[in-house]
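Minutes, project check-in

Agenda point 3 was the complex the collaborators sent over. CS summarized: two entities, 701 residues total, and the question is how they sit relative to each other. Sequences were read into the notes so everyone works from the same version.
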Amino acid sequence: MKHTLRNIFHSSKFVVGFAIFMFLLVMIIVYPLINPGSPLEQIGVGTFARPGTYVSLYDAVKTTPETLRIQDADEKRMANALTTEDKVAMLEWFSAVGVDVSGLEMDDSEGFLELWFANYDESAKPKGFTMAKRNYYKRLNRTVLDLQTGEALVVADPDNETGELVKIGEIKKTDYVNVGQVTNVKTLPLGTDNFGRDVLKELVGATKTSLGVGLVAGIVATALGLTMGLLSGYIGGIVDDLIMFVTNLFTVIPGFILLILISYSISPDLRGPTTVAAVIGFTSWPWTARSVRSQVISLRNRDHVNLSKLSGHSLLRIVVTDILPYIASYVVMAFILQVSSGILSEAQLSLLGLGPKTTVTPTLGLMMNWAMSYSAHINGTWWAYLPVILTITLISFSLNLMNTGLDQVFNPTLRD
Amino acid sequence: MSEDRIVPSKDFTNAPLCLSGRHVTKVFGFGDKKTIAVNDVSFDFHEGEFVSIVGESGSGKTTLSKILLGLLNHTEGEILFQGQPRDISTGKKRNAYWKGIQAIFQDPFSSYNSFHKIDSVLLDCINMRGGKNLPMEKKVEMMTEACSFVNLKFAELTNKYPFELSGGQMQRLMIARIFLLKPKILLADEPTSMVDACSRATILDMLLQLRDEIGMTIIFITHDIGLAYYISDTVYIMEHGKFVEYGKADEVILNPKAAYTKRLISDVPKIHEEWDLSTVELATE
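CS then shared the predicted structure for the full assembly.
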């Protein structure tokens, strides 16, 4: 046993897979401790807030500022304020007054400003420009200039009695506050989803549920498959024929379609994660049964089994002590694959809207379903679905890697 | 010529019957795929007799041995155990039968459950003989005695796993198991074919010694007619599921009647005779 474990942990593939899987497990356990609360808590009112650190504007204004003179602050501010619309308008002006704009890139805001200050003349009247259009350019020029001048923003508070605005302070362009001193700062590493929920928190919760679904599906499928395989392989005869008939039926009907039909026939109220997991397990046991059966058939005629019979051992004892240990490694590998495929099946079902109907716990498939129905993939809000895909990939990758590692340890012919 | 033999072959015709078969037949498969592995064989094995069943691979000797052990059901015919029809229809009756008949298999490496320590194999035997409630010291004493019978030291083997032993040691431990079980009949299915030549003689010697001590019937299954001649009292020659010839070892081997027996005898390599090249050429044609 010790020897086998040492061998397993010497397989680099197994170790890498195990490390990834352990990382995910630790995340599931530790993250809710750091960031407690329901994973489906709606913290945002809008949809799809970008990933990043959010600083409370109110608290930032109330925080004592420091004066910092940073050289390119103005330029950056102006460049940031310049919209694409403004740039298009500027280009129109440049072409009207005959300025060479070759080599000017659309995202080069500072280049635009430089050219603008060099060529704009309020009194100029380019041909075809109406009064209204010229006034638009005047306003544009003032906005740009305003950003450059040293005027401060006034902070005012309405008087409780008269309702008049009373100036309580001003914010200069050189005022900076330390993020650490602002009372309310919230980092959303993966932004928010369509309902304004923290995606990372949701993802951790979903990974937990999905792993649970995979585990239950794996246990159901392996337990059923193992029992059926052992019965059919060891007892043989009519039992074997019956079980093989059922497994052949399951094999002939495409598993996923069966899964869809069964899920569809269960009412949404009853379709919790555990039910879906059981359904997945119930549709995926036949291949475990088939392979266990073939292993048992080759084992049951071995001399040590015959000797065990001659020693008067009961059927149960022979199966448990003389057959099970020999196929244990194989069953563990089959179990790992069942868990992995259970997680994938849940994701597929949920994507079709046939997965668990839940408003308490998210699952990886449900998160993808939500992202898809709110067109996250069209809006370019990648944080709503890409991390989910990555997590699913990591889970199956780690499980399959562990499986390959185990396979190499237990099947010496596969060692490289 | 009979001085070559280890023990002179005795006549057991009048000894009490131990295991008999009447028209035993075993058929595998149906229709076109039908294979008759054992074809209508009848036999009488007597108490204390050393019987060899000789035949080539595929002649049905292993199938017959499994039928005799009750691990495989025969299609037709009847098997009598100590003069009574054998009844192994229930688990209890089967266990009672297996107290009377035990086996040593061909491959010592696959005869052990590699997840169990060696002690458990021997302890099982003590339990089977009704020694389940004996104190541990008594059990150890019995195991030590059984091991010393086969020239093994129990103290060195205890707590070891089967794969830590050599093939010869494993096979000798199998004999120790028989020593503890003391069955009426021992079925030895080519017990010496997977061990080296030195261990072979020791193992055969031990089997004979066991036979003399317990008065056990030994059914020795082999493809080696020379070996069968040296050690058995009675020889059954098996070809395509049938006994083509049987009788006292001396008579069958020194005076073969069936063509198959003659061929088997001529195939035995002779050490002190020159190679007869003419027969070699004939064989290649």
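Noted in discussion: The domain at 2-267 of chain B is CATH 3.40.50.300 (Rossmann fold).
Follow-up: revisit at the next meeting once the mutant set is ready.
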